[in-house]
Amino acid sequence: MNDWIPVFEAANGLEAHTLKGALESRGMAVQLKGEALAGALGELPMDLAQVTLLVRAPDWQRAREFVQAYQQQGHQSWRCGQCGEENDASFEICWRCGSGPGDPEH
Ligand SMILES: [Zn+2]
Question: How many structural domains compose the chain?
Fold first, then answer.
């Protein structure tokens, strides 16, 4: 089997490359589709191009799960158990009081 299956549509080249690197570091082969077209247009910054990530059939399930986890991580905020402040997902600890999201104490 040599099929490449679409697993994710990245909003831009940066996101595509971030995910590509993450999947490759987990031993999965990744191809990007859409990049070549954007490059051919020349003057458009690659960031504006939508890019499809392709993986091989045996890796698809694993890649899909990773991508879904990545998406949730990227879009979910969390509420601090100490002070109740809402924090962006990119913060590992509460920006207000410094406690972590895994701390269930109240
Ligand atoms: Zn807090």
Answer: 2
For residues 95 and 64, membership in a common domain is answered with no
Q: Identify whether residues 71 and 102 lie together within a single domain.
A: no
List all residues 6 or more positions away from 103 whose beta carbon is below 8 Å from its beta carbon.
81, 82
- β-bridge partners, 4: 56
* Listed residues: CB within 5 A of ion ligand 1: 80, 82-83, 85, 94, 96-97
**How many Cβ atoms are within 10 Å of 25's Cβ, its own excluded?**
8
Ligand 1 centroid to 96 CA: how many Å? 5
In the reported structure, the alpha carbon of residue 102 is separated from the centroid of ligand 1 by a whole-number distance in angstroms of 12
Query: In terms of residue numbers, what domain contains 63?
Result: 4-75
Residue 39 has pLDDT above 80, yes or no: no
Task: Encode pLDDT of 73-93 as tens digits.
Answer: 655 678 888 898 888 777 778
Name the pLDDT band for 14 (thresholds 50, 70, 90).
confident
Q: From the CA of 29, how far away is ligand 1's center (Å)?
A: 40
Q: Does 39 lie in the same domain as 23?
A: yes
